[in-house]
């Protein structure tokens, strides 16, 4: 019995030792073959601070994006690494939603990537957590020319007047339409014209009415139109779930605002109510716009509705052209429809350096390359993203063609509306829950606005 | 000899249990202790060195937040209505699968299959079923002349949809009930039959008492599951519309990852832990009156 116990003890001890050894050997092999991304790279470079030109250094870079977008970024990073032989950049890519959860978890766990992508909408919120390095000094040291980037874009990446992130692209919201639906008499029996470059809502409403068809081919307003059996919609908008990139510029278009200067909700003005009532009317009464439930049924993405072949027009970002190309959707673009003035939103994504990076020199090099003329020109040559650096504008036009020049031109209509923490809460925490259905004519808008205003306080 | 064995057994016992103890300390005790600590601070990120103790402020904030109230109400809805509905559904299915009919093994496999499908895939399937415009359910209902219902977009329909989804994935509970039903001694039914008992009397006076330990187990598991309901609420409607499916854990997730207030998320987690512990304790206490353990008789 005693012997058996000793044998058991020995066996257990050996098992634990074996497991521990296994773990240890794994770690060793990981660090030696350099194949693991983020965490190992960080550990590996601790001893290399400050990074010297000749010493090899590995840094981590993180961003959101589709598989294609990540592949294109990898191509940029490959070019950077070719020009900086001693720096290896390991990329971690995620989709938009999990990217922010991951970044937050990294911040909480002290494992932030050295360089990472940022959105203008989250600068203040994350800056309050202290995750960004201040860039003014280091950029000056490396001689980075900030004059090539529009001050309004730079301003959106500042926190307390300090540059904490550098804009790298200037995404913009436009209005898309499905050219195939317009050119086919079966889907356009009334011969609706394609929208003009700078359309009014009256023009869009007229077109959308003609492009909305029930199963018998009848339009809204025609005798016998069956609203319960619509097979093609004139447009797809969801102001309540696209507050920051659609509702807000439309409010500005009618001389209204989303939030007041003190951060309170500004949707109680007659101009704002006019905008909201209009969107309710075209959805609930005129039936020329998809309801939130119909959007879900069409794939759940307002910005991609025209690629389903069942919607004639929708708002979207310049990045959506990738999706349209993949879906082989022949698309046309105009500026966002206007009430009084044409307005849009410019959404510059940026790059930041982690406050906890152990590889500052390499991180600043990567940042300066990606946001500088060289990296931005390479980005422009890919033809998908609009470079924020003016030095790369010509390269973008040369690659993307005149048809996509609208994305550069639309920037002059961009509203200046920085994201504060309160506005971020409105857009991402409370707004969609409260306004999505009421702005589609389902529910009490007044009660929803009252509820929202109280939450904003 | 006996004494020396005991001496030897004690360290051996701790050595055998060491992996669990280490895991328990690393993955429960330390995180739990850390959460309790940060719940009384203004640290927005765990690991922050720059923080102040704020006493009960986070708990007061939590109770003053109207969204907290809504999420608590929704969670209780799922516990109070969902748990009985799902448990009853499991029991009914188990009784059906306990019938001696040809091919019953195939049926048992079919009913268990949905449990093997990852929850994310299951939710996507049900999103397609319940879609108001293109969903199968509305298509079937429309053949009977019924109007389209926005199941996922309606404040009053989203919660029942989540409960139905839980019945769909209830295979594990069904298996537990099936095993319990199989263990009910046949001679009890035979004796009851001789005494003239009918099916209902058999069910309420033999079957239910004999499987009551399994019922208690399933109810506790289901209660904990519903208190921690998250994936269904997130994927079906992102907690909406108008917070109708905003569950307690979804609120914790939003506090941490959207509001970037981990201290508040930890405060809410501690409250939830206390709530689940209390309710489980009450259930266990009540079980003395309702649960029949044959082995103790």
UniProtKB/TrEMBL annotation, chain A:
Residues 1-20 form the signal peptide. GO terms for molecular function: maltose binding. It holds the Pfam family SBP_bac_8. Residues 26-54 are annotated as: Disordered. CDD domains: PBP2_TMBP_like (cd13585). GO terms for biological process: maltodextrin transmembrane transport; maltose transport. InterPro entries: SBP. The keyword Transport applies. SUPFAM superfamilies: Periplasmic binding protein-like II (SSF53850). Gene3D superfamilies: Periplasmic binding protein-like II. GO terms for cellular component: ATP-binding cassette (ABC) transporter complex, substrate-binding subunit-containing. Residues 26-51 have a biased composition (Low complexity). Keywords: Signal, Transport. PANTHER family: MALTOSE-BINDING PERIPLASMIC PROTEIN, MALTOSE_MALTODEXTRIN-BINDING PERIPLASMIC PROTEIN. Belongs to the bacterial solute-binding protein 1 family. This is ABC transporter substrate-binding protein. It comes from Paenibacillus herberti. The lineage of its organism: Bacteria, Bacillati, Bacillota, Bacilli, Bacillales.
TrEMBL record, chain B:
It comes from Paenibacillus herberti. GO terms for cellular component: plasma membrane. It is a multi-pass membrane protein. Keywords: Cell membrane, Membrane, Transmembrane, Transmembrane helix, Transport. InterPro entries: ABC_transporter_permease, MetI-like, MetI-like_sf. Its main location: membrane. This is ABC transporter permease. The keyword Transferase does not apply. PROSITE patterns: ABC_TM1. Pfam families: BPD_transp_1. The chain crosses the membrane at residues 12-40, 76-97, 109-129, 161-181, 202-225, 265-284. Belongs to the binding-protein-dependent transport system permease family. The keyword Magnesium does not apply. Residues 72-283 form the ABC transmembrane type-1 domain. It is found in: Cell membrane. One of its GO terms (biological process) is transmembrane transport.
